[in-house]
Amino acid sequence: MNRRHAEHFLSVALEANLNAGTLRPGGQRLDIGVAEQDNFRGALAWALRSESIALGLEIATALEQLWTLDDPNEGIRWFERLFDHPEAELVSQSLRAEALRAYGSSLGIAGRFASAEEMWAQSLALFEQLEDEHGRAVLLHRLGISAMLRGDLERARELVAVSDEIHQRADDVWGRAQTTGTLGAITRDEGDERSALDLVRESAALAREAGSKWWESGALAELASLSLNAGLVDEGEVHARESLAIADRLRDRPGRIFGVGLLARVATERGQPERAGRLWGAIEDDDAGAPLGGWRRHRATCETRIRAAVGLEFERGYADGRGLVLDEAVSIALDRELDARAPSPATDRGNT
User: Fold this and answer.
1) Taking all residues of the chain, what is their mean pLDDT, rounded to a whole number?
2) How far is it, in rounded angstroms, from Cα 291 to Cα 146?
């Protein structure tokens, strides 16, 4: 690995469009991010060895959403090593602002909320010095999420509303997908889940328009949770399956855990205790976060409903589920086992 190769993989990372703060139209290529992970790691390691800290921060920041997909702790480790280097103080203000924001993303998904908020506050201060309204809007939204997660809903609404106004003036569909969804989550936490449903549904549609499958998947999972809470089991199942299918294509670990957990609850609501136990057993020990709350926010409600189904059938499924890996649990949740066993149309024709 040398500078030319490291710069090449920076261009690959930029092409994949994984920087959530500067998402371009045309969608994201998370598949590129996953396929080139080892090369990105090599480029980052070279940047540290050669003390090319600005280049390393550019690469790590360009991969913001890759870190949150599978292992945010890996993103944290890279950012820690880069920011600990004395050269990090010498990079441009704009790069430092973006890198701090991306660092906060990994910290937040990993559940280190206070540290994430600290990074985002530093990033916001830099964007304000730069008079960068878009950067400011992104960080106001992130800090609004932090306020929501710590229960300060009034402050959360105030911050997200300002962010939303900036995105509306700029006609930024991706920005509005995020702020609309977060306003829905705040409304949910205020106790008005019916109004939250409408806002989160709009967020999913905006994310689809912006080409952010990751946010669309999260919004659909949130829709599934709210629908199930409202007793809309059919609607909840449709949204949960859509969300899980997208998360699986993206290899989004938190999204897959959330989807399997939601479909365990659906099985409970449909009187399928063995299926519920099997799915629950597979993900019971897993933790997973997301901007709107994700599995961390909804786990307790799901568990209360699922545990109401405990009995011999549930325990039989639960024992089986404890031995499943996540990929297997996802296949079961999406009924791929049944699809694999079903005869093909050609076989059917041959038997007639």
Assistant:
1) 92
2) 9
Question: pLDDT tens digits, residue range 249-283?
Answer: 988 999 999 999 999 999 999 999 999 999 999 99
DSSP 116-142: HHHHHHHHHHHHHHTT-HHHHHHHHHH
Mean pLDDT of 62-75: 92
**Whole-angstrom Cα distance, residue 318 to residue 272?**
12
**Domain spanning 212-347 has what CATH number?**
1.25.40
HSE toward the beta carbon, residue 12, CA cutoff 13 A: 20
Task: Find all residues with CB under 8 Å of 146, minimum gap 6, and list them.
Answer: 108, 113, 116, 117, 120
Quote the tokens at residue 298. Answer: 């909804």
Question: Residue type for 182, please?
Answer: T
**What does the CA dihedral 114, 119, 125, 131 come to, rounded to 10 degrees?**
-130
Span 10-24, pLDDT tens digits: 999 999 988 888 878
- Cα 146 from Cα 280, distance rounded (Å): 29
Residue 146 has pLDDT above 70, yes or no: yes
| Rounded CA separation 41/43 (Å) | 5
Residue 64: partners with Cβ closer than 8 Å, 6 or more residues away? 18, 19, 20, 21, 75, 101, 102, 105, 106
Provide the CA 251 distance to its chain's centre, in angstroms.
11
| CA angle in degrees (0–180, nearest 5) for 178-146-37 | 65
- Which residue from 219, 121, 129 is spatially nearest to 174, judged by alpha carbons? 219
Does 341 have pLDDT greater than 60?
Answer: no
> 177 vs 146, 166, 223, 258, 326, CA distance in Å?
18, 13, 14, 20, 29
SS3 352: coil
Those residues with Cβ within 8 angstroms of residue 142's Cβ, 6 or more apart along the chain or in another chain = 101, 104, 105, 108, 116, 120
Which pLDDT score, from 0 to 100, does residue 290 have? Answer: 83
- CA dist list (Å): 16 to 70, 96, 169, 248, 326: 16, 21, 27, 18, 26
